[in-house]
Input
Amino acid sequence: MEYEAIIGLEVHAQLLTRSKMFCGCSADYAAAPPNTHVCPVCLGMPGVLPVINKRAVEYTIMTGLALHCKIAEFSRFARKNYPYPDLMKGYQISQYEEPLCYDGWLNIEVDGVAKRIGIIRVHLEEDTAKLTHVGEYSLIDVNRSGVPLMEIVSRPDMRTPEEARQYLIKLQQILRYLGVCTGNMEEGAMRCEANISLRPAGSQEWGTKVEIKNLNSFRSVKLALEYEIARQTELLERGERVRQVTVGWDEQRNVTFVQRSKEEAHDYRYFPEPDLPPLYISREWLEEIRSRLVELPDAKQERFVREYGLDPKDAAVLVAEREIADYYEACVKAYGDPVKVCHWISGELFRLLKATELPMSQVKIAPAHLAELLKMVDANTINLNTAKMVFDEMFHTGRRPQDIVQEKGLAQISDADELLRVVQQVIEQNPEPVQQYLKGKEQVLSFLLGQVMRATRGKANPQLAGELLRRSLRGE
Ligand SMILES: [Zn+2]
Output
């Protein structure tokens, strides 16, 4: 029997606010010594009162709008109770029945086919403290406690691990475009949990859902889902039942392991947070936030295709990061010819970025300098191979192409007399290939041209050199 997987994702994203969700402590906790970004509020002392971080609300609304959600005029914080040592108050302030944003969607593309994935809700809550287990002891760092956390819950609309991966990639792009979260999964700034069930293909019933925790990379998400599909398929084929459990993902062994069963599930005893008033979002504020939204990846891709005549696939590569898209547009503005600029960026620049593992933000080539380089090729001052060499040097030093070409004497030789001397020398030094050519072996010409390029250290104007070579060989 064929089975169909039903996959939904819950993503937690740390918001890039300066202060924490309910107190004035710095939310930039990662580099700080343990337990230095703390105060009575985020330490959960009795009698203290939380105050809502306005910027965190704004970031969540921005995200909701980017995900085509409805934004509630009134929403409410709730207490989620559970006893665990990383929760300083013994409860977490979260949102429950009345989230800030709900009922949205985002588009993904797998193998050229577009698919819309529903978003159930986007809500705000606070992060927990960090526990480090050392032998019999646990160390606690409260710096992370109270950092604003946004939870984005998808509908169970995904059917394959690859769709789940694409959803996460798209979500990460959007969060980064908005500047509300770094999106760095390896640092825990964006964390993912998946739920997955199987059902016979074509069936409308729901299977038993398994939750997978601790997914810290795109790769783990895909591998863990593939593992669960195989595991659950095997159970169902043996006529056994899938148990409703929460599993963890073991990155070392590439397996899931049971963390707790349904019987052990927490009863969170949610109730409205008595220390906070309901959150009222005026429609004026909402419209003001909407007016500040940046152009998002999908819209940008569409515009690049329309405005610059790019292939949709090329455009997708350029819009994957906002910095790259901005850089591309600056280069087009400086040079013109959007297709040629696209090829240089997705070809030469990406090759060097990959080789050096540098982020786009550290690229030293000014858009005006790239334009200058391409104009030198257009003007036949340098040939294409030299241009690539110069580009490499520009990438590493940030210098002007003209300076590099001048200093290294890379300007192309387009002087016919000078080139003719080289051509005649090459003909004299290669009597055998010349004979072969004269007997009709046309391919030998590229060998002879290669010798001309070598003799000029790659600086000969290839068109002119080829023409002179052919004419000389014919005895003209
Ligand atoms: Zn604090």
